[in-house]
Amino acid sequence: MKVPLLELRNLQKHFPVRRGVWGGVRGWVKAVDGVSLQLWPGETLGVVGESGCGKTTLGRLILRLVEATAGEVLFEGTDLLQLPPAQMRARRRQLQIIFQDPYSSLNPRLTVGGIIGEGLKIHHLARGEELERRVGQLLDMVGLPANAARRYPHEFSGGQRQRIGIARALAVEPRFIVADEPVSALDVSVQAQIVNLMQDLQRDLGLTYMFIGHDLSVVQHISDRVAVMYLGRIVELADRDQLYAAPAHPYTRALLSAVPSPTPGARRQRQILQGDVPNPAAIPPGCPFHPRCPERRDICSRQVPSLEELESGHQVACLLRYPAEVKRRLGIPEEEGQNQDHSTGQENRTL
């Protein structure tokens, strides 16, 4: 029986809002609010959504770079949130991160060899000549010359720095990597090179990725499945081809309608959302998306939707999209929202 490499169960992170420096807590920002999902060995899960939806916080919660408020992070069956510091430090070999900014994520006082070799030293994987040999191998793996080990980060371009960041993440032989918008700060041509490099490394090393991104075209290219987040929750989770061809949630449809068409002169019907993203410290009652949803019904302001199976491998958190049997189970009257056709039409099939 195939088991997930990583499983999240009701993962939450609530940041306190205080009155002044010494004041008491007057509210909570629900950055991640009950996320549950599974990642399978060797797959890439894309995570998309507007800025502030909780994508980066989710990735950092998994690695315990930010401590969770509640929930479980099961890696190979072990809850990482319950591990004491010494055991968690040993586990960090298998869970690494590629940061968004290739400029600020590298220590300018260390040589490239020192940056890549730091993890090898900490985990007692290599010393002396063996350390130099391993660093050279990693540089070659990411397409950089061996003499780069003696240079400093400021001597490299943005794309080269991101390759150094990838080599650093690979140094300790991880199985799972959070890629936090790893190409968003790079030129388009360099983005393609980095994405292709990540796919080659995944194939050769058997890596599992959580790829966090804004560019839906890049996410489509690299991902096997895609999770769409809104205000700290997953509102849709599906196989890449299913999601891009027939998104079910109104928010997903609006996101995809904003992607430029690759066909010159092609016209696409934009779905422009009204209003701004609500304050995460004052999330609206009911469905968090309902104040901006063009299809909302009265029930949307009263009942919080859970992530339910729409069809095999396709989950959605929308009261109006649930199949009839789910509506009956949850006590949702049929007249409160018909399960409308959620095909995007020909214009979105060209994404």
What can you see in these coordinates?
With 351 residues, the protein is an alpha/beta fold. It has two domains: 6-17 and 28-229, 3-Layer(aba) Sandwich (Rossmann fold), CATH 3.40.50; 232-259 and 287-350, no CATH class. Helix content is 28%, strand content 21%. The protein has ten helices and twelve strands. Strands 6-7-8-3-9-10-12-11 form an eight-stranded mixed β-sheet, sandwiched between helices. It has a four-stranded antiparallel β-sheet with strand order 2-1-4-5. The protein starts with 5 loop residues before the first strand and ends in a 21-residue tail after the last helix.
Primary descriptors:
351 residues; alpha/beta; Rossmann fold; 2 domains; 8-stranded mixed β-sheet; 4-stranded antiparallel β-sheet; 10 helices; 28% helix; globular; disordered C terminus
| Fourth CATH level, the homologous superfamily of the largest domain | P-loop containing nucleotide triphosphate hydrolases
Might you state the CATH topology name of the largest domain? Rossmann fold
Radius of gyration: 22 Å
Query: In terms of structural class, how would the helical and strand content be classed?
Result: alpha/beta
Enumerate how many helices there are, as a single number. 10
The domain count comes to 2
Number of strands: 12
Q: Low-confidence stretches at least 5 residues in length (pLDDT < 50)?
A: 337-351
